[in-house]
Design a protein that fits this description.
- It is a single chain.
- With 412 residues, the chain is of the alpha/beta class.
- It has one domain: Glycosidases (TIM Barrel, Alpha-Beta Barrel).
- The protein contains 14 helices and 12 strands.
- The longest helix has 21 residues.
Length: 412
Amino acid sequence: MTVTRSAGVQLHLTSLPDGRLGPSAYAFVDWLAAAGQTYWQVLPLGPPDEHRSPYKAASAFAAWNGLLAEPDAPVSAEEVSAFRAEQSFWIGGWEAFAGPGAVEDQVRFEREWGALRAYAASHGVRLVGDVPIYVAPGAADHVGWPELFLSGGQAGVPPDALATDGQLWGNPLYDWPALQRRGYRWWVERLRRTFELFDITRIDHFRAFAAYWAVASDAETAVGGRWRRGPGRAVFDAASRELGELGVIAEDLGLITEPVTRLRRSLGFPGMLVTLFGFDPDDPRGPHRPENHTPDRWIYLSTHDTDTAQGWFSSASDEQRAGVAAALSVAGLSSEPTGREGWALLRLAFSSPCPVAMVAAQDVLGLGSSARMNVPGTKGQSWRWKLSPGQLTDTHAAELREATAAAGRLPG
């Protein structure tokens, strides 16, 4: 995937002032264009779970009707018939799972999303999506294609410095041999649908295509899990034969081994780096450190799972703060006044040799920890952050445009 030196902003649709595909979505495109941004990255669009997490959506294909600006807009029989024909692989299963009106909602979404995407394109803004590698337990995909999933196991990650017992995710594991026998059709169609909606997509937990952590379904912790071999590049080869070049960003954060990196590079997918991960005193040679950045990755200042840049700096150790000051000096950047340190980190991210730099809207605003999108492992408070009307101003756009220009990331 070839990209020019550029930048973008992460903001999920639910974080817009109206939380929908309405006027605030178009206003945000206008703001991005004024700020000199090339990309708008969102989280998964599927119906979220009871905790509002879009990463355990009720469908890997269907969009959430809660995003509709006009949920009662009329839909003709001809539109429904055409959508059924175009999306025959999955729409029948989704209708059986979701009930009456499910197809009409998808037609409405297709109409509204298509209009927004065309508007964004006319303003030089490309849309970036997000594909969770796993599906939710008991969701439409799990119910509709049970033969594609293993029984008796669940997904997770092994113990590490952040979680001594590892993490149990509860998602069903793929039966990769069963998928292989079917030519990876489910994954090909999932990616086809993704690229019908987005210009580029991030694939979450990419490392599981090399090897994934499998845990017994009745386990109380992830300690007793084991690594199992993933399908490697076969899924993407099957998809590219039908879809052509795949605009994929591989989320390769966490425990990344050499086989994972080889797989990513063999596919030509950019990986991810995170500025906030670059100052860990226990990881002096880590890939996230500014001096170790490589042009085969995208740089993210923060992610939906981390603290905000300002929040991170506020709780950083003296050693971490000294690391930030040293990195700014090496990059020829000045520090910022107290309370604005997150903006210095933004400019540091933009200075990276990585071709694309992505920042969260919260970091453009310089917000603290209370504005973070998700706190992993907690329930009830995540996925709720939302912009206030007018919170992103022309002044913010001008300041971001100036930083983008200074880093040589303006479009065209």
